[in-house]
User: Fold this.
Amino acid sequence: MSVIEKFRTMDYGPAPEDPKESLLWLDRHKRRFSHFIAGDWKAPAEGKFFDTIDPSTDEKIAEVAQGSATDVDAAVKAARAALKTWQALTPHARARFLYALARQIQKHSRRLAVLETIDNGKPIRESRDIDIPLVARHFYYHAGWAQLLETEFPAQQACGVVGQIIPWNFPLLMLAWKIAPALATGNTVVLKPAEYTPLTALAFAELCDEVGLPKGVVNIVTGDGSTGEALTKHPGVDKIAFTGSTEVGRAIRRATASSHKRLSLELGGKSPFIIFEDADLDGAVEGLVDGIWFNQGQVCCAGSRLLMQESIAEKLTKKLQARMSTLRVGAPLDKAVDIGAIVARVQLDRIDRLVKQGVAEGATCWQPEVVLPSRGLFYKPTLLSNVHPASIVAQQEIFGPVLAAMTFRTPKEAVELANNTVYGLAASVWSESVNVALHVAAQLKAGVVWVNSTNLFDAACGFGGYRESGFGREGGREGLHEYLEPSWFRKAPPLRAKSSKRADQAEVANPAIDRTVKLYIGGKQARPDSGYSLEIRGKNGKLLGESPLGNRKDIRNAVEAARKADSWARTTAHNRAQVLFYIAENLSQRSGEISARLAAAVGKRQAAQEVKLSVERLFTYAAWADKFDGAVHNPPFRNISIAMNEPLGAVGVLCPAKAPLLGFFSLVLPLIAAGNAVVAVPSETYPLVTGDLYQVFETSDLPGGVVNIVPGRPSELLKVLAEHDDLDALWCYGDAELCAGAKALSVGNLKQVWTNEGREIDFFHRQQAEGPWYIEHAYQVKNIWVPYGE
Ligand code: NAI
Assistant:
């Protein structure tokens, strides 16, 4: 065939990558790998190994150790022992190790890329040009943070020993996302790679040894879900970081609820890929190739739901089908291949099952006429059209090369469809109009939005989800918060357990005596649904008044009111600041009477102090309200990434029993300053504070529904708050049991929960009770990537 003819047909010959180096490496290890613990290869205690296969041939590559609870224990002990050495190093010394790892990864990049491709089945073009360069970039970026740790994160300390569990879709990249920030902040690590793809983690272990990383700082234990489970349950682990399926994320939340381990979860997604009629359609089609066929669609943020404006649906579908027909499916080591192998037989079967179910539910299935290799695990690029928004293929993560297409008419409808899942990981918006694109981006419930682009990642830009896509961010400054905590917090004493019903409280039926306080919902005083009140008595036993006993229905009404108050999030930050200043002014004016009433419950000195510090705290958060600025990142592409700090939404707050006024403000103010609406359960010792609070709010222009107050028994109301699907987050202050309950009760909806882990916070102490730690928990970061420059 002449060159001209070849050019016309655009046929490629095979262009195989030479795997020799990687195979030699495997042979050097006799194709059998033990765990990497305390800097040495340690045979599994139970002597069990399992095979890892090459999914493009279905053949065995090597054997790896099956980790048991004993192996996990040895690794955790090694990490604990190494903590002292690692933390005794200066940040600069740790920065040098991270830098050394980055360099070592670059030096061995091709071997790592080939190994990744053999073990995972992804095209070499991707592992070579995307995965491994990003791995190196992550270590460079975090070498920088390690160097700057003391100046940029003063008075913070590492969590300690971190257990990290990663999936198989980006094996080495996920390892880098986990290990680099953990080490940069002074933690030590036990990492469990996915059972299908353990090899690059083991190669990385060797690199750690080569750069002389102190023994035990990084430990790798291989195995399946049971090994991961042993890690999540190990009492010696201070924090778990997990990426994987939402189902396992739930199991981990359940397993860690009562152990007070910190937890970050990066879970699944069903990300929308929205194309408006004014988009550059050819560009959008190329974007789609990247969005859903990159890594065979086994990407948590894959653009798996195509939302097309109705007017262009036909034209776009034709262009898409034409492009799909040119995708090359085949041996992943071939440099000209676009789509490689599916990681494992169970995943292939799952994809097939879901596609068949989608078709049974009415979708039309289209696949190009590509010939799949005769062996190995392959699946054709697939387009499902006419998909009903409620169909399983529009709602569930397929995690394969399958695109589910739907249409919309207006931007409003596009946003509604886009947000119509339980997930909120990523989104892609295509329009030549910057107004349309950014208007839509702002309304999407997603941690990352790519405008006229897709699947862009950088270590400087935080990545992570909203809603059931998880919580916590990886990358960026915000990613470091996951591995740090205030130095004083670890040393805080446990909060004394107290019964939810005080001895001096007695239940009585209405009608009440003179000083009766009501609930405060939607800016109005409301009677409790139960019709019950509690007598509240002071220190000397004197009856101070009656407080309503809120129940499930009251909480439901309060959540509804908080939802309706969403204009608070959209109002200007200046307005929010003004309202907070105004509350301070009104509280200050009434300080005498409020303090006198509070004194009957907490004593004169504390009451005066609480009012004074509450006014100060109001000033603090009024000051912060217009300074929640995000950032503009400059990733190494022709893009900027706008990191917006967005409110969480509607947040439940269980306030401390002690310091009824100051404790309430300490938790509620950072939330409303950031634009959230709140449903608060006030101090159970002195819920009568509610009456003073709403009188101040009512005179301070705080819009109705921004703060709702439902007095009642914390342990009862906690359950309602935690299980409420329409509440985005929960801040729970209480003893160890209450905090564990907050996490365990919200396993179903994977709500973001922040607690004091049963420790006592001194709300009279500024360093402990206000500032960045609270603010960081009051918002979530959305990164909007926008093409920029030449
Ligand atoms: P998975 O969530 O079971 O596996 C992820 C990691 O968790 C692996 O290292 C696994 O060994 C570990 N693991 C499993 N059970 C565990 C437990 N009880 N405790 C602690 N660790 C445990 O994911 P799987 O089964 O491999 O894939 C199933 C589906 O999950 C996929 O089809 C896809 O929809 C989704 N998924 C999402 C990922 C993401 O990045 N969001 C990554 C991998 C899978």
Residues 165-169, 192, 194-195, 224-225, 228-229, 232, 243-245, 248, 251-252, 267-268, 300, 347, 350, 397, 399 surround NAI (CB under 6 Å). The longest strand covers residues 639-647. The chain is about 45% helix and 20% strand.
